[in-house]
UniProtKB/TrEMBL annotation:
GO biological process, one term: phenylacetate catabolic process
Domain of life: Bacteria
InterPro entries: Aromatic_CoA_ox/epox (IPR052703), Ferritin-like (IPR012347), Ferritin-like_SF (IPR009078), PaaA (IPR011881), PaaA_PaaC (IPR007814)
Record-level Gene Ontology MF annotations: phenylacetyl-CoA 1,2-epoxidase activity
Record-given protein name: Ring-1,2-phenylacetyl-CoA epoxidase subunit PaaA
Taxonomy of the source species: Bacteria, Bacillati, Actinomycetota, Actinomycetes, Nakamurellales
Organism expressing this protein natively: Nakamurella panacisegetis
GO cellular component: cytosol
Length: 317
């Protein structure tokens, strides 16, 4: 390995970085990295952090209407976990030189993205279960490989996040199992929620590989470990037996086992709908961003008080 010092030339720094990636070692905040790598990491980590924070809204909407004290406690804990995930991820972005206040500013002014899935409404309590099962399930499928992402702070944040997401997925599935053992109208609610969330969940993995501008470079850098289509297929294969056990169907007439491929074949998501949602024109984009902005504005006094307290404590020391 190249020994790095203040006198190291740019081409040596680049080859040290390339060697680190080739050896599957981690890039740490103190290490030199190409500007494009830094930019990609900030982009992905910030989008991920924003998704966790905006992702609190669809389910948070049901906290006051949870059907029992137990369900309410579980949902509160889950939504708080998502806030925690957002915080680790903003911290990881800060290790790359990003400023948290600036990232939030970009989010609320529509200059940075968050996951398309959170722009769909939650119309019944079954949606809470379906989000846990399918949305957290898709998130786990996407994020477990990210535990091996080449950027150290991101990979390490992912380990803890995935542990919590797997609890979230199980609570969603358990909620749905309970509803499926209930009345006909509860079973209908579950099926309707599955019908509404199945395609948006498949879109969480991003556009098809041949329309994904970032995948090739991110794979070469070890930022992403699988392509969007590979993970989407893995998710479909994993979800079909779970749906059968639950007693629901997916709204896809082309979904069937392909023995030759050893995978399920499935239909094509509506990519026009995906891009419309990503560009800000989904059913709830405006509402989600406006809510985030008002929470941020109303929390200004808390941030100011915390800063004043920190300055006073430092003065006393
Ligand atoms: N929604 O070249 P591509 C959670 C954008 S939170 C919106 O394939 P990349 C949870 C993409 O950013 C789950 N935008 O991009 C929380 C790019 O635009 P820019 C969040 C999307 O980065 C609370 C363009 O489309 N998970 O689990 O290689 C409650 C082209 O795409 C989406 C993460 O953030 C989308 N679905 O791959 C419950 C995981 N897909 O930036 C649950 C980390 C694509 O060039 N992120 N775009 O302007 C990733 O793994 C990758 O960033 C993606 C996209 C697979 C999402």
């Amino acid at each position: 390995m190249t020994v790095i010092s203040d006198q190291t030339q740019p081409d040596e720094l680049q080859s040290h970085f390339d060697e680190t990636i080739a050896r599957e070692r981690r890039i740490e905040p103190r290490d030199w990295m190409p500007e494009a790598y830094r930019k990609t990491m900030i982009r992905q980590i910030a989008q991920h952090a924003h998704s966790e924070i905006i992702g609190m809204q669809p389910e948070g909407n049901w906290i006051t209407r949870a059907p029992s004290l137990r369900r309410k406690a579980v949902l509160l804990a889950k939504v708080q976990d998502e806030a925690g995930h957002g915080m680790y991820l903003y911290s990881a972005a800060e290790t790359l030189g990003a400023d948290r206040a600036d990232l939030t500013d970009r989010l609320v002014h529509g200059r940075q993205k968050y996951s398309s899935i959170f722009n769909y409404p939650t119309l019944s309590y079954a949606d809470v279960g379906v989000i846990g099962w399918l949305v957290d399930g898709a998130a786990i499928c996407n994020q477990v490989p990210l535990c091996r992402s080449s950027y150290g702070p991101y990979g390490r944040a992912m380990v803890r996040i995935c542990k919590e997401e797997s609890f979230h997925q199980r609570q969603g599935y358990e909620l749905l199992m309970t509803m499926m053992r209930g009345t006909d109208s509860q079973r209908d609610m579950v099926q309707q929620a599955v019908d509404r969330f199945w395609w948006p969940a498949l879109m969480m993995f991003g556009p098809p590989d041949d329309e994904s501008p970032n995948t090739e470079q991110s794979m070469a850098w070890g930022v992403k470990r699988h392509t969007n289509d590979e993970l989407r297929q893995r998710f479909v294969d994993m979800s079909v037996p779970q749906a059968e056990k639950l007693g629901v169907t997916f709204p896809d007439p082309d979904l069937r086992w392909n023995a030759e491929r050893g995978h399920y074949d499935f239909g094509t998501p509506d990519w026009d709908e995906f891009w419309a949602v990503v560009k800000g024109n989904g059913p709830c984009n405006a509402q989600r961003v406006a809510h985030r902005k008002s929470a941020h504005d109303e929390g200004a006094w808390v941030r100011e008080a915390a800063l004043a307290h920190a300055a006073k404590s430092a003065g006393r020391r």
